[in-house]
Amino acid sequence: KKKELMIDVSDSQCDYDKCDSNTFTGMIISPPCYNETEFLREKFRHVLVFGIFSVCILGSVVIFLSSQYHNSVPTSKDTDSADLKHLSPPESLGVSLPLEIEQHFSDWIEEDDNETRNDVPVFWSIPLTGNNAIEEYLGGCLGLTQASEIGIIGNGEDDEDSLKMVKVHGLSYLNVDLRTKHGIEHAKELHLVDKHSSASLTPDVVHTPLLYE
């Protein structure tokens, strides 16, 4: 009589050649097949989880350090404006300015409203130093009336007998040319920096490369 037998050879060594079919019949359960694709997927999941965990830890550290830094830096609200008035000016380096500059330019540190109230700032226009960007900012962003050479070149006009404000690309200029000595003399004849009846005829800032003139 044949015996029915189920053999699990997943953990045992079996010589299938010696199995006699007359002795028993049965079902042989073989070990599971090795699936490389599933192994790679499992490995990828482990790497992904580890990567996400590492990013979270690193982000938390960065946020913590950033908050500590911002808390340690004083803001403008924390700074008392009254304390700034007591700050000492920088020590003198013993450098003297040329006499032409000493006589014609004010010291902005001096607190004398009677002398500096109507002073006009002068921007020393040095070639290839971003003068156009400065003029765009002063005229476009701050809305200041400027005096340079743009009021003549941009408007296509020659010297005139009276001051007037002209618009060049949306910016306000006075019709003078301060890039030459002749232009400066002409602007002086028109009383460029004097107080006028119309505030628009008094420049808020003057641009010139000829600082000594």
From TrEMBL:
Instruction: Read off the InterPro entries from this record.
Output: Golvesin-related_Golgi
Keyword line: Membrane, Transmembrane, Transmembrane helix
Top-rank taxon of the source lineage equals Eukaryota
Q: Does the keyword Transmembrane helix apply?
A: yes
Membrane-spanning regions, if any? 47-66
The protein's name is: Uncharacterized protein
Species of the source: Ditylum brightwellii
